Amino acid sequence: MTARTGVSALLSRVGATSALTAAAVAGPAVLPGLAPQADAATPLSIEALHIAASKKGSPYKYGAAGPKRFDCSGLVLYSYKRAGKKLPRTAAAQYNKSKHISGSHRKRGDLVFFHSGRSVYHVGIYAGHGKIWHSPKPGTRVRLEKIWTRSVWYGRVN
To answer: Is residue 100 among the annotated active site residues?
Structure first.
């Protein structure tokens, strides 16, 4: 069956529904041009995101990488390790290990690196809608927070 006959068959089953609605229901097999992009978030990244979110409320501790206390890169390290991917320990090393992407191509589960000039000083996991899961600083806890600056770079873990 071709994509065209697949759309026709689907339209006849759903009645007076628009072709776009039918394509959305049928998925990318009906309209190959609407297939997910190659840079879509990976299951690994989504799993790491969920693991980071599950640590909500865990206290910050410098140098800690879980399971009960975290610094920023420790939370990323822990989350990705539990999802099945080994990463370096520091935010700067994690940046160097990730595939650098533009902000317009960021996806849930990507890493968000905060920088001053060329120096990376903080990292979190992108949660969507301009927010990250991170362990901010001493005296705080792991939380979901809006990205507060434009001085960020994005990275994807492969």
So the answer is: no
Residue type, 104: S
- 83 to 44, 54, 72, 146: CA distances (angstroms): 6, 13, 17, 24
Per-residue pLDDT of the chain (158 residues; tens, 9 = 90+): 444 444 344 334 334 333 333 333 333 333 333 333 344 578 999 999 999 999 999 999 999 999 999 999 999 999 999 999 999 999 999 999 999 999 999 999 999 999 999 999 999 999 999 999 999 999 999 999 999 999 999 999 98
> Which one is catalytic: 50, 105, 115, 134?
134
- Active-site annotation holder among 50, 72, 100, 129: 72
Asked, as a colleague might, if the bond just before 67 is cis with ω within 30 of 0, I would say yes
